Amino acid sequence: MSPAPDIRFDFAIEGELHDESFLDTYEVSLMFSQTERELGEALALKLEGLICSEHGQVARLTVRGRYHAASDEMDVQYDLEPCCPLFMARVIKTLNTVS
C-alpha cells in the first residue's frame, strides 16, 4: 500500500450570518463537509505514493476554506508544507497534471 499524503482542512465562516444570508449555519457546515470529503478524496488519489526521494517525506498540505457571510462566497486555498524546494516542485507539478 502506498503512503497517503498528509492533508489537513481548516474551514471557517468569516463574519456573521444573518437572516438574509443565502445559507444558514447548518447548510454552510454541510458545504464544508462535502468540500472536505470531495477534495480530500481527489487530492489523496493524486498525491498517493508521492514521496520525497531525499527525505522520505509524504506530501503535506492544508486546505483552507473561508465562507464570507457578507458576500455568501467561499474561497479555498492550498498551503503546501514540503520538506524541501525540490519536493515542492514535484508536488505542484503533480497537482497541476490533468489526469
Give me the strand/helix succession: EHEEH
The structural class is alpha+beta
What global shape is seen? Answer: elongated
The fraction of residues assigned to DSSP E strands is 25-35%
Strand order of the largest sheet: 1-2-3
Number of domains: 1
Structure notes:
- It is a single chain.
- The protein is an alpha+beta fold.
- The chain has one domain: Heat Shock Protein 90.
- It has helices spanning 25-47, 85-96, and strands at residues 6-14, 60-68, 73-80.
- It starts with 5 loop residues before the first strand and ends with a helix.
Distinctive features:
99 residues; 2 helices; 3 strands
Question: How are the SSEs ordered, and which strands pair?
Answer:
Layout: E1 6-14, H1 25-47, E2 60-68, E3 73-80, H2 85-96
Summary?
The protein has 99 residues and is of the alpha+beta class.
